[in-house]
């Protein structure tokens, strides 16, 4: 350890990152609040989590006939035969090798205990059998049972009450051989979806960036600041357990074969239970499958003439999304918002998508206080003064961008610098600390927002 400290503590790497990182409490759950009762016994806590997630992942009420009828009207356009062939062609040795190469080291293994380092070290021996298994599955043969399994580890959401079951994010720890196969399919699917999914969706596809969304909001707010007669609202949609509630029927054959999982609660594995809906957070395919499902809803909103977006020249701006982080920019606030809520409800009945009204926030622009109260009463949504979207603090006035983001970021950086000053770092170590922790925070803001001087 002393040798490692001498060699690496002043260089960019894991050891320096560990020293700089804020110490977080272990994800050990010591108590839960269940229906007003406090549960503290470890065995009871595990049973509560198991029951909660078993119910969460149980098959929803969606019926296949209703889904078929819905998709006849609202389904995405079919891909060409050429694209279909590129998705279904045989998996090559180069694809297997590339997927293994892309695997990150240090990640937790799946139920079989084999890490990515194992596959990287023995790839010369494993590529051929992996290629054979993958191509057998592509030809329609059954996937290995181990590929249907996962350990689900629970990560508490930041700044939430740890005694509430709903405040834990389930992350699936999958076997690496399955992830290699899924990574290859994801790489192929990205190329197809990049042409099928509208540019409004900025998440998980090549050439698309979340900064486009924040810049779009800022530009629209600037436009509305000058057009004071345009009444508008910006709605930041929050979906209830978005990735976990999506209907498997809606994804159809894309998710066939995903079967069982076990939970890890306080490092103890619970009893096995079936997963019958949702996309596995931790699988390379999950975000792509999710955005392909969500695109159906986004298309419905785009094509509905009752929903009035912000008019800029000949173009109308209605929505932007980064995966499930969706925001809407609407004129005619009451009628447009009511129609959007109807469309979300209609889509949710067949897809499992659920709106969380309590966490859905609205910024109002050019509305009087009476109109704002009326909007809240009519829609059931909360109008707020500030909202955080994709890491950027926003308000109805762009004048607040500097104070809410740059100044706030600088206060946090100064706190970090004060803590790091107690570490025994050389000049090179301090430079490395700035590169690893300070510059990324500033660069994020520089990319997401315009670089502005202090606003008096």
Put simply, the count of helices is 17
Radius of gyration, taken over Cα atoms and rounded to an integer in Å: 24 Å
How confident is the prediction overall: mean pLDDT? Answer: 84
Largest sheet: 5 strands, mixed
Low-confidence stretches: 253-264
Total number of domains: 4
Helix content: 40-55%
N-to-C CA distance: 51 Å
Protein structure class: alpha+beta
Describe this structure in words.
Helix content is 47%, strand content 14%. With 456 residues, it is an alpha+beta fold. The protein folds into four domains: 45 residues, no CATH class; 209 residues, no CATH class; 107 residues, no CATH class; 47 residues. Strands 3, 4, 6, 7 and 8 form a five-stranded mixed sheet that branches. A five-stranded mixed sheet has the order 11-12-5-13-14, with helices on both faces. A two-stranded antiparallel ribbon has the order 1-2. Strand 6 and strand 7 form a beta hairpin. Helix 6 crosses helix 9 and helix 14 packs parallel to helix 15. The longest helix is centred in the last third of the chain and has 22 residues.
């Amino acid at each position: 350890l002393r040798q490692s400290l001498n060699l690496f503590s002043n260089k960019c790497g894991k050891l320096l990152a560990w020293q700089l990182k804020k110490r977080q409490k272990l994800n050990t759950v010591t108590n839960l609040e269940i229906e007003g009762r406090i549960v503290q016994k470890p065995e009871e806590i595990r049973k509560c989590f198991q029951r909660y997630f078993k119910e969460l992942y149980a098959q929803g009420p969606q019926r296949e006939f209703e889904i078929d009828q819905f998709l006849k009207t609202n389904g995405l356009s079919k891909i060409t035969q050429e694209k279909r062939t590129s998705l279904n062609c045989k998996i090559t040795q180069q694809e297997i090798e590339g997927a293994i190469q892309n695997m990150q080291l240090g990640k937790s293994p799946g139920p079989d205990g084999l890490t990515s380092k194992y596959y990287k070290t023995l790839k010369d021996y494993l590529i051929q059998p992996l290629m054979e298994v993958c191509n057998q599955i592509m030809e329609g043969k059954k996937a290995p049972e181990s590929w249907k399994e996962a350990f689900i580890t629970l990560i508490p959401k930041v700044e939430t009450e740890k005694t509430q079951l709903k405040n834990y994010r389930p992350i699936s720890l999958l076997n690496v051989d399955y992830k290699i196969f899924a990574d290859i399919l994801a790489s192929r699917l990205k190329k197809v979806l990049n042409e099928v999914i509208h540019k409004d969706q900025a998440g998980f596809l090549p050439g698309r960036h979340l900064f486009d969304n924040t810049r779009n909001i800022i530009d629209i707010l600037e436009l509305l600041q000058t057009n004071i007669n345009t009444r508008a609202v910006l709605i930041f949609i929050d979906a209830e357990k978005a990735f976990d509630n999506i209907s498997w029927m809606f994804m159809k054959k894309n998710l066939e074969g995903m079967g069982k999982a076990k939970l890890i609660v306080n490092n103890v594995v619970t009893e096995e239970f079936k997963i019958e809906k949702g996309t596995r957070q931790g699988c390379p395919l999950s975000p792509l499958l999710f955005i392909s499902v969500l695109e159906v809803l986004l298309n419905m909103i785009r094509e509905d003439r009752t929903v009035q977006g912000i008019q800029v020249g000949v173009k109308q701006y209605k929505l932007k999304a980064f995966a499930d982080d969706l925001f809407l920019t609407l004129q005619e606030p009451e009628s447009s918002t009511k129609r959007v809520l109807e469309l979300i409800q209609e889509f949710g009945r067949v897809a499992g998508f659920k709106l969380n009204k309590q966490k859905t926030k609205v910024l109002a622009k050019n509305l009087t206080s009476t109109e704002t109260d009326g909007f809240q009463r009519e829609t059931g949504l909360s109008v707020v003064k500030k909202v955080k979207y994709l890491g950027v603090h926003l308000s109805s006035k762009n004048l607040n961008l500097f104070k809410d983001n740059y100044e706030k970021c600088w206060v946090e950086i100064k706190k970090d610098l004060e803590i790091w000053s107690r570490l025994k770092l050389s000049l090179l170590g301090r430079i490395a600390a700035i590169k690893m922790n300070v510059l990324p925070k500033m660069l994020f803001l520089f990319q997401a927002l315009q670089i502005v001087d202090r606003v008096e």
